[in-house]
Structure formats: C-alpha cells, structure tokens
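Translate sequence into structure tokens.
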Amino acid sequence: MTEHQKSNRPDFPDEIRIVGLNTEKTRRDAGSKTLYHIYFELSGHPLPEWRSLFEREWRTISPAEGADIDGGFLVVHGQLPEVASTHFPALKKAVATTNEAYIRYAKKEAIALEQRVDAWKQERKEVEDMAASLRFD
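Result follows.
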C-alpha cells in the first residue's frame, strides 16, 4: 500500500489521493454484462469522518452512480467505457472536495481539543492554588 502523500499544509492531516486503478480487483458485476466494480487505489485508508464526508460529497456530484470505500480503495459501479470520461473526473473532484472539508473538520476538532486542554489546565491550576493556600499544622 502506498503511504499517504503529505499535505502542503503542515498543520493539517495527510490528504487522500487516488493513486491508481487496480486492474486485478476490478471485475464485472455478477449477473451483468456491462456493469463493473471498478477499484481505484487510494493513497491510504480513509478515516471514518473522511469516509462520511466523501459519501455526502459523492451523492451531490454523482447521485446516480454508486461508489463505496473498501479499505484503501474507492469502488465505483459503472461501465468501463465511462471510466475515463465520467467516473475518474468525478471521483477526483469528490476526493479533492472531501479533503478540503476534512481539513476544515480537523481544524475545528484541533481547536476544540485545545480549548478542552486549556480548560483542564485552568482547572488544575485552580485546584493547585487552592491546595497551596491550605495550612496543615
């Protein structure tokens, strides 16, 4: 499996990229002569929140086409002749938009965590100050 590509933004997590098409895993849908499960390899295994954001984004870009995430793969359900002209460009757009949304999400989460840590530190300081004011004879 290919390692995540590092984001150009050092404060943010690695971005997911489409790095190839897995011809070994791509196969015809059972019972169909034209529909395939087309496996696009990702640069890493997306985290659950990234997956959720991608699913939402994909429904807005291509509501008629099915797409799933299977480990480190994006799996599109469609016809082979449409891969280059339709599926791949739509997937690239959905992945890029998902990365942007995930970075916003991660930034909000980092700020929230920082606020919780600051509140905890303040609480600890108040406890320590109170303890220091006590005189045990």
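Note: The CA atoms of residues 71 and 130 lie 51 Å apart.
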